[in-house]
């Protein structure tokens, strides 16, 4: 065990390939813990094709699910940012497909969320609204809303999120995201607060931000259910 300058203890991850903070509270809310690997003695055969392992056919563990496979069934090396691996890691065919889709979120949608969008924000049942810029914090744990005032929403305290749309476009295409309605519990309170955001000035940028937030909500749900 070791420590980092701010005093957080580091422990070895289940795979033994990374050193991670002992307290998971410092993790991004999108992150997932590494799985416990199936012990070698419990997997004499590939868990996909049932090939028996021997000195020639070696066993490999998928870094995402922790199950045991032969080289053929666990040959793909794909980035796994949700578990904070720096380099692409070995994954089974099923897990690699899921990870490849998540890489797109980290490469594209996450950058959109960090960049922010402009919205007309209404807090609770108030009649007053304020034009604010909403963006995801660099540690991915908060939504920062800045205008004449400033406040923050911690993602882990959001209980529900709904993306609002403007209906079907005249050409019959896909409807565009026009706003977001979410309920969250402010720090120190157990009472849910409503927050409504409607697209303001740059509608294209704001709509892309909302679409990225919709994808982020799915990852948050998966991380909570882990």
UniProtKB/TrEMBL annotation:
Pfam families in UniProt: FYVE (PF01363), ZFYVE21_C (PF16696)
Keyword Zinc included in the entry's annotation: yes
Name of the protein this chain belongs to: Zinc finger FYVE domain-containing protein 21
UniProt-listed InterPro entries: FYVE-type_Zinc_Finger (IPR052113), ZFYVE21_C (IPR032031), ZFYVE21_C_sf (IPR038632), Znf_FYVE (IPR000306), Znf_FYVE-rel (IPR017455), Znf_FYVE_PHD (IPR011011), Znf_RING/FYVE/PHD (IPR013083)
Location of the FYVE-type domain: 40-95
Keyword annotations of the record: Metal-binding, Zinc, Zinc-finger
Classification lineage: Eukaryota, Metazoa, Chordata, Craniata, Vertebrata
Superkingdom in the source lineage: Eukaryota
Record has Mitochondrion as a keyword: no
Native source species: Ilyodon furcidens
Xref: SMART domains: FYVE
């Amino acid at each position: 065990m070791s420590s980092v300058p701010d005093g957080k203890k580091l422990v070895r991850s289940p795979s033994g390939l990374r050193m991670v903070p002992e307290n998971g509270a410092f993790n991004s809310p999108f992150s997932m813990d590494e799985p416990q690997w199936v012990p070698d003695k419990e997997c004499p055969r590939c868990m996909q094709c049932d090939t028996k392992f021997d000195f020639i056919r070696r066993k490999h563990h998928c870094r995402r699910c922790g199950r045991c496979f032969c080289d053929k069934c666990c040959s793909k090396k794909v980035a796994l940012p949700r578990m904070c691996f720096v380099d692409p890691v070995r994954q089974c065919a099923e897990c690699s497909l899921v990870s490849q889709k998540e890489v797109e979120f980290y490469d594209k949608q996450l950058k959109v969320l960090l960049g922010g969008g402009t919205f007309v924000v209404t807090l609770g049942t108030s009649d007053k609204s304020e034009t604010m810029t909403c963006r995801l914090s660099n540690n991915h744990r908060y939504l920062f809303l800045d205008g004449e005032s400033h406040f923050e929403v911690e993602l882990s305290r959001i209980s529900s999120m709904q993306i609002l749309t403007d209906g079907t476009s005249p050409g019959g295409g896909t409807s565009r995201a026009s706003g977001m309605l979410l309920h969250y519990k402010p720090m120190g309170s157990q009472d849910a607060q409503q927050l409504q955001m409607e697209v303001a000035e740059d509608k294209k940028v704001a709509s892309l931000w909302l679409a990225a937030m919709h994808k982020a909500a799915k990852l948050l749900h998966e991380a909570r259910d882990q």
